[in-house]
From TrEMBL:
<feature type="domain" description="Flavodoxin-like fold">
    <location>
        <begin position="6"/>
        <end position="79"/>
    </location>
</feature>
<dbReference type="InterPro" id="IPR003680">
    <property type="entry name" value="Flavodoxin_fold"/>
</dbReference>
<dbReference type="GO" id="GO:0003955">
    <property type="term" value="F:NAD(P)H dehydrogenase (quinone) activity"/>
</dbReference>
<protein>
    <recommendedName>
        <fullName>Flavodoxin-like fold domain-containing protein</fullName>
    </recommendedName>
</protein>
<dbReference type="InterPro" id="IPR051545">
    <property type="entry name" value="NAD(P)H_dehydrogenase_qn"/>
</dbReference>
<dbReference type="GO" id="GO:0005829">
    <property type="term" value="C:cytosol"/>
</dbReference>
<comment type="similarity">
    <text>Belongs to the NAD(P)H dehydrogenase (quinone) family.</text>
</comment>
<dbReference type="InterPro" id="IPR029039">
    <property type="entry name" value="Flavoprotein-like_sf"/>
</dbReference>
<dbReference type="Pfam" id="PF02525">
    <property type="entry name" value="Flavodoxin_2"/>
</dbReference>
<keyword id="KW-0560">Oxidoreductase</keyword>
Amino acid sequence: ADLVIFQNKLALLSFTTGGDEEMYSKKGPSDNIRFLLWPMQHGILHFCGFSVLSPQICFASEYVTEEKRKEMLISWVKRLQTIWEEKPIQCVPEWYFGDI
């Protein structure tokens, strides 16, 4: 990407889903979540010059126990503490679709 304003900047998607992780797997009715992420991570963020980190996804947060929601938050806090050390994902079709 030639947009200098976003080069050397990190970006990631952080979101919750209405379904559990299995629903967004290659065997689930919603298919692999990587298909959903491809246009956003590659077509928008990477294309504009960002280095894209792995997404932070909390599956079915509305339906899990309070304890599980706390675990999700703790996991996110821990990740944020070391986020600057993370390696960006490879925004190429093989990363998204190679093992599907």
